[in-house]
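chain below, 111 aa
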Amino acid sequence: MRRLFPLLTVSTVFIVALGCQSGEDVPTPQGTSAAASTVNRIVEVGCAGCLFDMEGAEGCQLAVKVDGKTYLVSGVDIDTHEAGLCESTKQAVVEGEVEAEKFVATKFELQ
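prediction:
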C-alpha cells in the first residue's frame, strides 16, 4: 500500500495537469518572431476566395482564421468544394505554424 500511494499521487497530478490545458495558444510574447507562431486549437476555416475575400487567393484555396487574421493553408489536401467550404465556414482542430504569412498544418480535422 505504501508503494501504491506515491504512484496514485503522481498519476492524479498528471491527469489534472492534462485536464487543465485549455487548447488555446498562448499569445506570442513581445520580441518573438510571429513568422514561426505555433497554433494548436479550434479555428474557423473556409475558402480563401469565396468566403474570406483574401487578396492573392487564386480560385478556391483553403484558409484558416487565427486571431482574426486569415492565412492560406499548406500541408493539407482538402477539396474546398467537396468539404462545403465555399458555401460556409466550418470549425477545424488544427496544429501547425504560421510561417511567412501561411499556415503550415501538421494536423487538420474538420468538425
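Residues 35-110 form one domain. The radius of gyration is 19 Å.
thats it, cya
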